[in-house]
Recover the amino acids of this structure.
């Protein structure tokens, strides 16, 4: 990467980390997928219960083999041998896990996390339930503000995820949301019934946290996830 661009990105990362900490969200930077995985392993506790949210980033850094190593009580929502009903029960159980590990749709430079869900278990875990939440995120998900976070979801995160999940949505077919800009009056929400196959059902903004350092954000110096 060009040295000047690298300096600019590092400035944005530093600003974001400072503001996350001001919001009582623990935050740090690691340079690569490999260091992210090593750090994750260093802060997990043998025998603790661990659940995960739907996340391409976790797969990209190799987190699942670690969690399936037998060192932890892993509530495995990705177990291909489990039935649909069993997976749903595991998602519910994950909300009472010791640790919930996930990605995020966007982080604002002002220190907020922005997440949009279809089922809602991942968004719910950010708000309450698991004793701690660990967020692994590539620097590419840093945006200036919440309006840009909304647009990022509409034009990048959700279209890519609907293609991955074969969700038959407007954004899967067209590459962007049916309302692909941030409507200041309605923010993320769409007119009732406009997108009946939508995976954008619940939106959560994690700003100042009363439970200090319950959420830890690990910003990775690579472009990862959607």
């Amino acid at each position: 990467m060009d040295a000047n661009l690298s300096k600019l990105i590092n400035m944005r990362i530093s600003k974001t980390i400072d503001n996350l900490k001001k919001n009582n969200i623990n935050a740090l930077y690691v340079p690569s997928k490999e260091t992210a995985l090593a750090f994750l392993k260093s802060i997990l506790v043998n025998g603790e219960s661990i659940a995960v949210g739907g996340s391409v980033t976790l797969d990209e850094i190799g987190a699942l083999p670690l969690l399936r190593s037998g060192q932890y009580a892993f509530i495995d929502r990705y177990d291909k041998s489990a039935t649909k009903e069993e997976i749903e029960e595991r998602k519910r159980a994950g909300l009472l896990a010791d640790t919930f590990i996930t990605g995020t749709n966007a982080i604002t430079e002002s220190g907020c996390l922005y997440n949009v869900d279809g089922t809602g278990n991942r968004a719910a875990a950010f708000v309450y339930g698991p004793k701690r939440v660990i967020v692994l995120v590539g620097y590419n998900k840093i945006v200036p503000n919440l309006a840009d976070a909304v647009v990022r979801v509409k034009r990048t995160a959700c279209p890519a995820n609907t293609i991955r999940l074969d969700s038959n949505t407007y954004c899967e077919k067209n590459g962007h949301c049916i309302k692909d800009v941030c409507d200041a009056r309605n923010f993320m929400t769409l007119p009732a019934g406009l997108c009946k196959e939508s995976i954008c059902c619940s939106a959560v903004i994690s700003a100042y946290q009363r439970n200090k350092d319950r959420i830890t954000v690990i910003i990775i110096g690579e472009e990862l996830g959607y």
